[in-house]
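Input record (one chain):
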Amino acid sequence: MNIVDIGIIIAYFIIVVAIGIAVRKMASQDIRAYFLGGNKVPFYILGLANASGMFDVTGTMMLVTWLFVYGIKGAFLPWVWPVFNQIFLMVFLAKWLRRSNVITGAEWIKTRFGHDMGAKLSDISVVAFAIISTIGFLAYAFQGIGKFSQIFLPWELSANTYGIIIMSVASVYTIMGGLFAVLVTDVFQFFIMTVVSVFIAYIAITNVTREAILSAIPAGWDSLTFGWTNLSIDWSNLMPTINSRIATDGFSLAGIVLMMMLFKGVLVSGAGPAPNYDMQKILATKTPREASLMSGVVTVVLFLPRYLLVTGICVLGLVFFSPQLNSMGAAVDFEQIFPYVVHNFVPVGLTGLILAGLISAFMSTYDGTLNCGASYIVNDIYKRYINKGASEKKYVMVSYLSTFLLIILGFIFGMLGKSIHQITMWIVSGLWGGYVAPNVLKWYWWRFNGYGFFWGMVSGMAAAMILPLALGNPDVLFGIQTNLALFPLVLLISTAASIIGTLTTAPEKDEVLMDFYKKVRPWGLWKPVYEKVKKADPNFERNKDFFRDTANVIVGTVWQMTFVLIPIYLIIKQFTGMWINIGVLAVTSIFLKFNWYDKLEKA
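The corresponding structure, as predicted from the sequence alone:
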């Protein structure tokens, strides 16, 4: 690396640490300031920071692989995560969550289930979910940044050493500045990544012709259409090993897989955000209205720059690196595309900016996860069970210590090797498996209680962790195909446990249910509670927005997809597809303006 590039990276590290020092005083006022920015941060800042946290390099490289292998049809594959959960949040769930006015997801449990034993068990399950998933993702980020740095940075250091150095920098500003530091650095990091994305897209557009792209792709690669059991793409004449990968992934049954992804995605999205940095940003907004707008900002600002970067890397790899990839045979490694692009196409100065941007992408995911995880230790363990009446200064000090503890645990699990890392991610996968059913029911069914939530979470987590082991192959634990195939069974087990646990115990107290219903105002199966609220308050009006919210979710998902497809069509120079999607973007934007934005509550 040129000394100019090294200087840019070092300058970046100095700037982010300086940010943490600068905002330390604001963050140390109390734990609401430390973890939620005092609910004073504008929604667009929170939206930019949230988008930055989702702009992770590992996920971006996965998107490059999907686009390379599956062509434009790869735009559908992120539905497995699912990316359209932001639309559910934007339309209705973010404002429902924000109305609770709590600090963490575990504290939210009290607003729904009260303070009885069922609520306490539910609270424990959410805290465990948050802390274990935090440690898992910190370990994941630690290993990822270490391997990335070994490839790109010039010093002869081990992956673990790089991980410790870079994550320590992120840890310093996160500990000192709390959410304020996370937000400021994440916004700064987001703008770096946007500049990087535009540069990579420009390099691809100016160095690759439409004819060169067509010669490097099979028929059907640049088309969104596919059959129910046929992907309508065949790499036999260009890179035959890709056909084997498609079969292994299970995506050759394209229509069936897409329906499964959609089924799972709708349920996961309807459950609301998990107790991670996404939920934290929603709870940090000023008002329910701003919570909805914040989630809308994420869609607008995330997908355009991210897919400029993804498509730019992919196209340069297709046209210039395909022979090398083909020579790898069955061991083809698509993660080698990006180092090739940086080495061969990026000039001095811009290389340093790109690497700083990609390191920042790791750090923005890391810092948000770290700050959110610490909030559960402080607010839901220390404050509730250990030292209930302590001063705010004491709680802030414990926040520092809790953040440091999570850092050390993340480092330890990250350094223990691949097997420990696989076990950690397997546990995290199990946590997500148990999350869906109870968290759907908590919003939409009045009779659901704390016992049902607890047993639904525990049984779902156990099923999601045990069932993959029964397959006898640890490599499938994280596979999309296995994840989708087992999801209905895990869902069935968790749903059954949720319902049985609920119906064999007493309903929550009327005052708890009525208070929740009046405050959050969800739609769904709430008629008995609505009638009691209406009797006590004749002026109360129930939420009648189900059909409008459903229409907005459907249109919003199409709207979101245009932000993905427009940069893809631009860079592959298929301008007809680009203009069609711009037209769809305009129409869906007008629809959402009148049917969503204009209908938002004013405060």
